[in-house]
Write a structure and sequence with these properties.
The chain is mainly alpha-helical. Helix content is about 80%, strand content about 5%. It has one domain. It has a two-stranded antiparallel sheet with strand order 1-2. Strand 1 and strand 2 form a beta hairpin.
């Protein structure tokens, strides 16, 4: 295989990896900073189990979303690894 082909494949892999990281970071920002600080007043008009939604996001929701982001990242990176034939066998 030519070095140019390997380099191009590596660039595609890296681009897919960065796209996945960017998506996770945007969601992380929106949940932690957006829901917990910026939009807390609007979210507090909604109640969940007797607690304002803004409070719920700041205390519980962000932790749940962070764990889900970890699961999503691992799942997505496994897919990307297989697509680019760099997965563990």
């Amino acid at each position: 295989m030519h070095d140019e082909t390997i380099e191009r494949k590596a660039q595609h892999y890296w681009r897919a990896n960065l796209r996945t990281v960017a998506i996770c970071l945007v969601i992380w920002f929106l949940v932690s900073y957006g829901a917990g600080i910026l939009f807390v007043d609007a979210l507090n008009t909604i109640q969940i189990a007797g607690f304002p939604l803004g409070f719920w996001f700041a205390q519980q929701g962000s932790i749940i979303v962070f764990v889900l982001l970890i699961v999503f990242y691992a799942w997505r990176m496994n897919q990307i690894d297989r697509q680019h034939d760099v997965h563990e066998r």
